[in-house]
Amino acid sequence: MKKVRSQISLLALVLILFSACDNNRVFEEYKEVPQWGWEKDSLMVFEIPITDTLQNHNLYINVRNNVDYKYSNLWLFIKINQPGQIAVTDTFELALAFPNGKWLGDGFGGIKTQQVSYKSNVFFPVSGNYKIDVQHGMREELLEGITDIGFRVEKAE
Q1: pLDDT digit string (tens) for 91-140?
Q2: Closest Cα to residue 114, out of 79, 155, 74?
Q3: Which of 18, 29, 81, 100 has CB atoms 3.0–4.6 Å from 131's, for a disulfide?
């Protein structure tokens, strides 16, 4: 009985530590790419509720790709829509592999996950729902090998 209590206490402590490690996160979500591929005109849309207009934020792009992806990089078109219809559009390149072909990121079983800094110390001037549109900017109409696209917003320190 005493052993069970100590195991439960240890499990509770581990859960508390894991949940406390990410208290800078404001938003994080992944969108799954269809199994047949990511069509050039298809958008991954993220709705981000922003309430703190005093805090600066860091923005990240998260990518999961399988090892059958044909390229070492990924070009993205990213559009940030502020409440009130003001929009900013960027072109952003991510390296997914070293020049020698070795994949960047973490993972096993043929899937690699990578989080890349997109923008640092971003100031959101108004509160509300910001909409982020992410579209691939590669030459192919149907991009195969990207399995998920994610977006993360965290408080800047």
Answers
A1: 999 999 999 989 999 998 899 999 999 999 999 999 999 999 999 999 99
A2: 74
A3: 81
Neighbours of 122 (CB within 10 A): 14
Residues linked to residue 26 through DSSP beta bridges, in sequence order: none
Fold category of 26-155 in CATH? Jelly Rolls (2.60.120)
| Helix and strand element counts for the chain (H, E) | 1, 10
Q: Among 48, 72, 65, 70, which residue's Cα sits nearest to residue 114?
A: 65
Tell me the C-alpha distance between 14 and 139, whole Å.
46
pLDDT at 2: 56
Q: How far apart are CA 91 and CA 106, in angstroms?
A: 24
Residue found by looking up tokens 């509720």 in the block: 49
